[in-house]
Amino acid sequence: MFSSLLLDEPLLDALESLGFTEMTEVQESAIPKALEGKDLIVNAKTGSGKTLAFVLPLLQQILDNPQSVTQALILAPTRELCRQINKQCTLLAQYTDIRTAVIIGGEDPKYQLKALEKYPDVIIATPGRLLEHVKRNIIELEAINILVLDEADRMLAMGFSDQVIEVASRCNEECQTVLYSASFNQKKFKLLTDAILYEAEEIIVDDPRNNNLNITQLKIAADNSTHKLKLCDYILKNVDDDFKFSKAIVFANKRATVNSISGWLQSKEIPSAVIHSDISQDIRNQLLRKFRNNEINIIVATDVASRGLDITDLDLIINFDVPRNGEDYMHRIGRTGRMFDTGMAITLVDSQEWNQMISIENFLDVKCIERKIKTLTGKYAGPENRKSSGKAYGVKRKKKVTKKKVKKKIKSRIRDKKNIGKRRKPSEKESAVK
């Protein structure tokens, strides 16, 4: 119960107005430790309530020690995630005077500068844009007492490690640092954690490889991209009770593929929105607002939408392409089945992707159910001969026998050509003997 925590009344009132009474496992484990001011490494699956777990103690610490400067900094890898965190902060701080500011790329800096002029208590930012302001002396970090890294695994994958370390080095020496992740790997994080954490306590609520029991995970064999488009068309027309959904996201690995899928769906009179890095931030925000408000119910996106989106009634994920790795798969399907809700994830797998999909399943220790759509059964139904791991046997290639080439003489010398095809004339002595 949140009421058991030593929280000020404004925060308890906000929790009550939002309908939060019982704490999730990660909240119950992390909030008391954070309130004590300890450095933490917290790993919990997507949709488990991590954002509230670090925002709530952060707000309480600001209420306990109000100042006229920015005290808390939250770093996140994507713009969408920053906006999501800011929304949570604003709702939880609605009965207080705590102000927040979002510092991200893709927006007009003048609005950010206006927000910074008001000395917000909390800044939520992406590392790159934050450092731009820091180096221009627009933002000073010396007074930061609380630093939170959300989706730290993604920041590492995006190459933000050095930037995060630089930001941390500019914060107060006594700064409390909290690192949150859904796929914590001690070896991968070692350089970062050694640089910015002090005697950090690890709270591993969920093993990164644990299966999300709230999500039904299926895979459907497909012949090729054209076959996959037909499968998407069938699933998204919402005619099959097995695939009924309210909202859906179709993920693809490349922007060109996303555009192709959306164009196909439009031709089949299935309206959808497109989200990838070429879409401006303002348009992305408009599309996500429409998605939340049920004005559209299908989004086609790259992995920019695989983190930070917490949308109610999102109950179907389709992986048009098999993700590049297990962590990307986990974050994609984690957009559904959040908290106590349920959802479905369908991955379309062709012959070239089969072994990659099996590697993901083995990494996450999950077995996706193989499904077929009778009217759209293709020629490829998965490998006939499979290894014990589930992967397809490779075809042995015969070694090509190459004949040794005779080296040609490179130099053309006169002596090699001399008297070629000419008979030697006998000398006078030889003629006399005869």
Structure in words:
- With 434 residues, this protein is an alpha/beta fold.
- It has 2 domains: 2-204, Rossmann fold; 215-376, 3-Layer(aba) Sandwich (Rossmann fold), CATH 3.40.50.
- Helices cover 37% and strands 15% of the residues.
- It has 16 helices and 14 strands.
- The strands form 2 sheets. A 7-stranded parallel beta sheet has the order 3-4-2-5-6-1-7. Strands 10-11-9-12-13-8-14 form a 7-stranded parallel beta sheet, sandwiched between helices.
- Helix 12 links the parallel strand 10 (273-275) and strand 11 (298-301).
- The chain is globular.
- The protein starts with 8 loop residues before the first helix and ends with a helix.
- The mean pLDDT is 86.
What form results from the Cα inertia axes?
globular
Structural class: alpha/beta
**What is the CATH topology of the largest domain?**
Rossmann fold
Q: Please indicate the percent range of residues in DSSP E strands (runs of 2 or more).
A: 5-15%
Work out the number of β strands: 14
Task: List its salient traits.
single chain; 434 residues; alpha/beta; Rossmann fold; 2 domains; seven-stranded parallel β-sheet; 16 helices; 37% helix; globular
What is this structure, in a nutshell?
With 434 residues, the chain is α/β, with parallel strands linked by helices. It has helices spanning 9-17, 25-35, 50-64, 79-92, 109-117, 127-135, 152-157, 161-170, 186-196, 225-236, 255-267, 281-292, 326-333, 354-364, 414-417, 428-433, and strands at 40-43, 72-75, 100-103, 122-125, 146-149, 176-181, 201-204, 215-221, 247-251, 273-275, 298-301, 314-319, 343-349, 369-371. Helix 2 runs parallel beside helix 3 (50-64) and helix 13 packs across helix 14.
